[in-house]
Amino acid sequence: MHRFLALCLMGALSAPWAAPARAQANTSAQTHPSTSAMTSLRLHQAAAANDVSAIRQLLKEGAAIDSRDAQGRTALLVATHGNYVDAARALIEAGANVNAKDDMQDSPYLYAGARGLLEILKMALAHGADLRSTNRYGGTALIPACERGHVETVRTLIAAGVDVNHVNRLGWTGLLEAIILSDGGPRYQQIVQLLIEAKADVNLADKDGVTPLAHARQRGYKTIEKMLTAAGAR
């Protein structure tokens, strides 16, 4: 008798009309994210809106502070992209990882350095920024800062101890990028001077053997040429 009932039960579960019920249950589970996932999504939204109150409340509710979005970005990196200083401060002070990289190999620290977002950069430096971390081009935060002419960012990164002679995958240092990718104007002259004062190797050539001085001469950057020559460039 018991065996008969068991067989009947097994048959009912395997019957055609049971499949839709199971499928519906599985679909329901897949289309309804967990509470923690929804809370983390809202944290990213709050960061994108620079909503400090919402950030703090969501963290209290258990939002994972370093959870990632579809691009691999943390909420802190989202806030950094918008240069939302208040949101970034709330997240950093709550323990967000300033070195967490997204799918593009950007971290809050690297992105702030590259874009000259000085306030966020200084907070990142004060909360464990990895000075040796590199971007997708193999460059430190200093190299793109030199390229983009962010004088105070360069000054800040040099003072923090970033290697001024680091070479990226293109074969360029910060000094080379401040010449090759610049207009040779006042901002770049200041950056070259900062690098010289920080003991950058003025004779460190690119992968083709072209020196900073040769690049400056090719572009007609007379002021930078004089600065390099005075520092011993050949």
UniProtKB/TrEMBL annotation:
<keyword id="KW-0040">ANK repeat</keyword>
<keyword id="KW-0677">Repeat</keyword>
<feature type="repeat" description="ANK">
    <location>
        <begin position="71"/>
        <end position="103"/>
    </location>
</feature>
<dbReference type="Pfam" id="PF12796">
    <property type="entry name" value="Ank_2"/>
</dbReference>
<protein>
    <submittedName>
        <fullName>Ankyrin repeat protein</fullName>
    </submittedName>
</protein>
<feature type="repeat" description="ANK">
    <location>
        <begin position="137"/>
        <end position="169"/>
    </location>
</feature>
<keyword id="KW-0732">Signal</keyword>
<feature type="repeat" description="ANK">
    <location>
        <begin position="43"/>
        <end position="70"/>
    </location>
</feature>
<feature type="signal peptide">
    <location>
        <begin position="1"/>
        <end position="23"/>
    </location>
</feature>
<dbReference type="InterPro" id="IPR036770">
    <property type="entry name" value="Ankyrin_rpt-contain_sf"/>
</dbReference>
<dbReference type="InterPro" id="IPR002110">
    <property type="entry name" value="Ankyrin_rpt"/>
</dbReference>
